[in-house]
C-alpha cells in the first residue's frame, strides 16, 4: 500500500493560477487500498472524475485525505510514500527538507543536487555524455560580464520547474530582457539553442532490481513549456544516457526520474544531446503510468484550454476511452479545469488520436 502526495507547490516557483490543483493528477496512478492527499478544492469535481474513471475501467483509491500538508504522510507509517518531488526546491528554510531527510537522506541529497541544471551539465560532462554548449554562472552579474555567450540561446535559472523563468533569446536585446526577469543572486545557465525540433523524454524507474528504463516518448512543446508527449517513438538512446542513470541509482535515487534529450540529425547519423534531468515525476509520467495500467500501446497527451470550470459541464460519454476499441479520452490532470485547462490522454492510432482530440477541443470551446 502507498500514500500519494503529488502536490507541486514545494518544487516550482510558478505561481500561475491552478498549480495547487495538480495534486489530483496522481489519482489515476493509485490502486484500491492506497491513500492519496489532494487539495480540498478538488472535492468539487470528485464525483465527476470517479464516474469518468469507472467508465474507462481505471481502478483507483477512494481513500482521500483532503489536505496536501506533507507532514500528514508520517501519520501512516504502514504505507510506502509516493511524492512528486522528494524535497523542497522553493522555500529557503529547512522545515520541509528536514522532513524528507528523516525519511531518506541519500534520496533527498541526490534530488537536491541533480535538481540544479548546472549540476546536471557538470555531471554529464564528467560521464562523457554529450550536451549542448552550456555556460554556467553563479549569478546574473557574472553572465552579463561574459562576452562569449552563444546566440540564439536559452537562459535558464539553475533550479526551475514547469518551465518557470526559461526564455529563448535570439539576440542580445532579448538576452538583456531575460536577465531582468531573473533573481540577481541565484545561479543560472545559458544554453546554446539546439538545431532540432525533436526532443525526447526518457523516464527511468528505480526498482529493487536497480534502475530500469520505463518509457521513451517524444515531447510536444509549447515554447519552453511541456505541452504533452507522444508514444511510441522511433528513437532509442537509452545506451547513451545509461551512465547517468546508473549514477543516479548508485547515489540513492528512488521512484521515477527523467532525462530530456535532443535528437539532432547529422550527416553521419543521429546525435543525442542530454538537456536536463527531472529528478522526480514529470508531466509525461502520469499518462505513461495510466497507459500501462490500461495496456494502451499508442497514445499522446495534450493540454487544452477550457471555458468550462467544472467537469460536470463537459460531456465525455461518447469520447471516453473504450477498452474494447483501444480508442478515446482519459482525463489525467482533471482538477485544473477549475483554472481553465485540462490535460488528457488520447488513445488509439495517430489518426484516431487526432480525430478524438479535435472533437474534444471543439466540445470544450462550444
From TrEMBL:
The record's Gene3D superfamilies line, in alphabetical order, gives: ATP-grasp fold, A domain (3.30.1490.20), ATP-grasp fold, B domain (3.30.470.20)
Q: Which domain of life is it from?
A: Bacteria
> Any keyword Nucleotide-binding?
yes
Q: Which PROSITE patterns match?
A: ATP_GRASP (PS50975)
ATP-grasp domain residues: 121-325
Xref: InterPro entries: ATP-grasp, ATP_grasp_subdomain_1
A molecular function annotated in GO for this UniProt entry is: metal ion binding
Q: Which keywords describe this protein according to UniProt?
A: ATP-binding, Nucleotide-binding
Which named protein is this? Answer: ATP-grasp domain-containing protein
Amino acid at each position: 500500500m502507498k500514500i500519494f502526495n503529488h502536490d507541486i507547490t514545494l518544487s516550482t516557483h510558478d505561481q500561475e493560477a491552478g498549480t495547487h490543483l495538480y495534486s489530483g493528477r496522481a489519482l489515476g496512478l493509485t490502486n484500491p487500498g492506497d491513500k492519496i492527499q489532494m487539495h480540498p478544492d478538488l472535492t468539487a469535481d470528485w464525483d465527476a472524475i470517479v464516474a469518468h474513471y469507472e467508465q474507462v475501467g481505471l481502478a483507483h483509491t477512494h481513500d482521500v485525505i483532503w489536505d496536501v500538508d506533507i507532514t500528514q504522510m508520517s501519520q501512516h507509517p504502514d504505507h510506502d510514500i509516493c511524492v512528486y518531488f522528494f524535497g523542497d526546491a522553493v522555500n529557503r528554510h529547512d522545515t520541509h527538507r528536514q522532513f524528507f531527510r528523516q525519511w531518506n537522506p541519500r534520496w533527498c541529497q541526490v534530488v537536491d543536487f541533480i535538481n540544479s541544471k548546472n549540476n546536471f551539465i557538470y555531471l554529464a560532462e564528467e560521464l562523457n555524455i554529450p550536451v549542448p554548449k552550456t555556460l554556467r554562472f553563479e549569478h546574473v552579474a557574472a553572465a552579463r560580464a561574459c562576452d562569449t555567450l552563444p546566440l540564439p540561446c536559452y537562459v535558464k535559472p539553475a533550479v526551475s520547474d514547469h518551465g518557470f523563468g526559461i526564455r529563448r533569446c535570439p539576440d542580445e536585446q532579448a538576452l538583456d530582457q531575460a536577465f531582468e526577469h531573473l533573481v540577481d543572486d541565484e545561479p543560472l545557465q545559458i544554453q546554446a539553442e539546439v538545431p532540432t525540433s525533436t526532443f525526447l523524454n526518457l523516464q527511468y524507474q528505480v526498482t529493487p532490481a536497480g534502475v530500469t528504463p520505463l518509457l521513451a516518448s517524444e515531447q510536444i512543446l509549447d515554447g519552453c513549456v511541456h505541452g504533452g508527449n507522444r508514444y511510441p517513438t522511433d528513437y532509442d538512446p537509452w545506451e547513451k544516457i545509461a551512465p547517468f542513470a546508473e549514477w543516479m541509482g548508485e547515489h540513492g535515487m528512488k521512484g521515477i526520474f527523467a532525462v530530456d534529450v535532443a535528437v539532432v540529425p547529422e550527416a553521419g547519423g543521429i546525435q543525442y544531446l542530454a538537456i536536463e534531468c527531472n529528478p522526480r515525476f514529470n508531466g509525461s509520467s502520469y499518462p505513461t503510468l495510466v497507459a500501462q495500467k490500461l495496456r494502451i500501446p499508442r497514445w499522446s497527451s495534450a493540454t487544452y484550454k477550457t471555458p468550462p470550470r467544472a467537469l460536470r459541464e463537459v460531456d465525455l460519454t461518447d469520447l471516453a476511452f473504450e477498452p474494447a476499441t483501444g480508442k478515446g479520452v482519459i482525463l489525467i490532470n482533471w482538477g485544473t479545469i477549475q483554472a481553465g485547462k485540462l490535460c488528457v490522454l488520447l488513445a488509439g492510432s495517430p489518426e484516431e488520436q487526432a480525430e478524438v482530440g479535435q472533437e474534444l477541443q471543439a466540445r470544450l470551446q462550444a
